[in-house]
Amino acid sequence: MSLDFKFVPDDFGGFFRDETFRETFTYTNSNPRRFPFPFDRDDYMYSVNMEPHVPGRPGTAFEHMLDVDEHYIAEMIDRAKVLADDPLRCQSLPHMTLAGWDTLELIMEAKARDYPQWFSLTKDGNRWHWVNRPLGIEHSFTFLDESTLPYPPFEYIMRQTQGDWTLQDERDGTLWMDAGIATSQADWSVDFDVGMNFMEWHAPVPLAHEKGVFDRALKFLLKLQHGAPVRRFNWTMTVNPLLDTAPETYPRWGPMKASITPENLGAKQHLRVELQSLYRLPRSNAIAFDIRCYLCSFDQIVTVPKWARRLHRVVRDLPEELATYKGFIRNRPAMVEWLSRHDDGAPTSPGWWPDD
Amino acid sequence: MKVELTPTDAPSIKSRPVYAALEPRPGKLHVIVADCQGAEAVTDMLAKANDRAEFLAAAHVMYCPGPAGVDLSARLEALGAAQFFRAPTIPALLPRLVRVLSDAHMGTQFYLAGTESLIGQAEREIMNTGFPFAAIQKEQRGSTLRRVQCVHCKGITENVATDPFKCSHCGLNLFVRDHYSRRIAAFQGVNIDAEDPGQVPESVVRFK
To answer: What is the pTM of this model?
Structure first.
């Protein structure tokens, strides 16, 4: 989408929230129980933790292959602003165009199938007709003919899709991040990382290399089959519901980390969850990696008693290297203090779902 | 933010290229690009060649002095390669490499030796032409001064010796993250006092 889009919040039964991820920070979750809480036990350490990406419980972020939630329009407006400020956030090396078309097809088919009230795709051979009602987009184009779209295929579909995505080319027995978009990232630079292989772009992660996590993950991913996507979680912490925590703009958002007080912590401190899913693409044999960001304030998380207890224990016991890498070492003592008031010490049940 | 600086003698980081000694390989053309004390890596390699004269008859040597002025060009020129070129700096060397690459065929062997800055920039030009990774050998010798890209303004500061340092483009105080991009041929520099403006640790010399 482009910035001249006019958002009418009352459309679509008022489903889509009119909210911001910057300046006024009006983002919130209408139903925090929908949040994909990432901890299935009371402690955390890196692991490959992949599972098949199959449709899950209705009413959760797992119901469909791609989750289009109440934040969709607001996130796409935020993405358009980021790309207008810094076009380097979306890059695709020349040999990745076919993988971009594969990704466009994957997303259009999934959205038209799972959300027919909002999206439709009709095909007449290579003549495709795409309608995205929430964003007011309607295009007829020729599949695999770049000249028929207003943007290259990867950027075109990314301007209509939540989550940061990277496209990995497979060669020399490894994966190369040769295309990507990042406007809702946990402090990594697509501009710096594009062109790197799997081990190179994971280089700054502490502890995990030594545990063999990346060797196992790469082996697993090289066997990924078309039609059998997988998913895993990652997480970090963010002060204020900032989608775009890019290293590029760190001097602008870094100072917010110093704004936490015991009084404002519950509202300002957000758990940031990445629901990551991976898809083998049919024509290019590339792997598409979707890093979907969900934010939930501590105030909202502790409305679920099991999550309140567990988050306290995870944050309290996390190894110092990880808290440093994840960028919240300075606020950890305040977070643990605040969370401890919501942990009565009762045991928690296995798995991440709420108890009730 | 607490910043942990990796000691320069720490085990190699994962995105940092790993260097081995250059080995002579059979090839139709040997493109040798070196700077600084990389010249010694080249002469050491030649000492291992079965037929040194045959190797040199198919060799094109490009050299420039190191960032601190180490100039071993006379030693390389005296080898008697088919072609020898001395450039004053890396930027002055690269256009010739690009021209040579435009005529190079598969079966060409590449030998890069010297500073990481030279190796990285030469490798980037070679990979842009589509030569396989496996045809490129790299050996780091001499200066460990780093080429660093500011992740904020995207400007590159050459020959970084201290950590943290001031970006030569936007002036922010940057620490050198142990994260290396082959495409940019540079390490990543990240603002060290973003969360607490003005709180800049004392610079230490980490790269020489």
So the answer is: 0.90
